[in-house]
Amino acid sequence: MKKSVYSLVLMDDVIRAVDREAYKRGTSRSNLINQILAQHLSCVTPEMRMREIFGSVSDLISNSFSIQQQRSASLMTLRTALDFKYRPTINYKVELERSPNEYLGTLRVQIRTQSAQLIDMFGNFFAYRVELEANALAAHGCPDYVFSLGSGSFSRKLINCGLSEEETGQAISRYLNDLNTSIQTYFAAPQNFAEYAPQLSRDYTKLLEEFIL
Questions:
Q1: How do the pLDDT tens digits run along the chain, 213 residues long?
Q2: What is the C-alpha to C-alpha distance for residues 138 and 131, in angstroms, rounded to an integer?
Q3: In angstroms, rounded to a whole number, what is the distance separating the alpha carbons of residues 95 and 22?
Q4: String of b and e for 75-89 (b: at least 16 CB within 10 Å)?
Q5: Chain centroid to CA 90: how far?
Q6: 137: part of which helix (H) or strand (E)?
């Protein structure tokens, strides 16, 4: 949304209260005032849009996820434990764009471990997943699959297909549930993953028939 600079004359007590609240929310003074006025005047702000999306995700996400508290309206962090020795955790971070164009935002996935074996397994899984997603999205007319795969980390851009806030929340939750199921299946029995991979591929392809993300 376009922004312009305006001058406002406000009481010092009001500014102090605004600054305290802005600090609590992890935002700026001007952004908080913008949110308050927009809410009062029934205008939709990026923060309102993102809160609605994440609210939908919270309602629909699998109970295998633990949603972490965060101060930023644009960021949602989730955590899940792997069914593997030492119970390592996987962190998922969804960061939305304030004014989405081609992409809604970015998904980042990271494994919390010092084990070289687990980091290698993580990389092997996402090498498979990247190929699956890139080919499936290209088949649906979305060739611009932007991703990054590092040591113990994966990220990708989430494609903007003009969904409503509720639909976007549904798409993100469905994608995260699908991805987590696939990760859990791989780490539970990596030696047998080839047996389960065809069904997991069909599940992802079926997801794309409803939501492109």
A1: 566 777 777 788 888 888 898 888 777 888 777 777 767 655 668 888 898 999 999 999 988 899 998 778 899 999 999 877 778 899 999 999 988 999 999 999 999 998 999 999 999 999 999 999 999 999 999 988 999 999 999 999 999 998 999 999 999 999 999 999 999 999 999 999 999 999 999 999 999 999 999
A2: 11
A3: 20
A4: bbbbebebebeeebe
A5: 13
A6: helix 116-139
The two three-digit tokens of residue 104, written as one number: 């809604």
CB atoms closer than 10 angstroms to residue 185: 19
Task: Specify the residue for token string 């084990």.
Answer: 115
84 and 187 Cβ atoms separated by less than 8 Å: yes
Which residues on adjacent β-strands are paired with residue 56? none
